[in-house]
Amino acid sequence: MMKTTVDVDRELAAEAAEILCTKSLKDTVNGALREVVNAELRRQLAEQIRNGTLPVPTEEEYRKLREPKVPIGAARRPGGAPAAPPRVTTVLADTSVWLREGQPTWLHSWRRPSRRTVPR
Question: Cα–Cα 20 to 30 A to 5, which of 27, 40, 86, 115?
Answer without folding.
Answer: 40
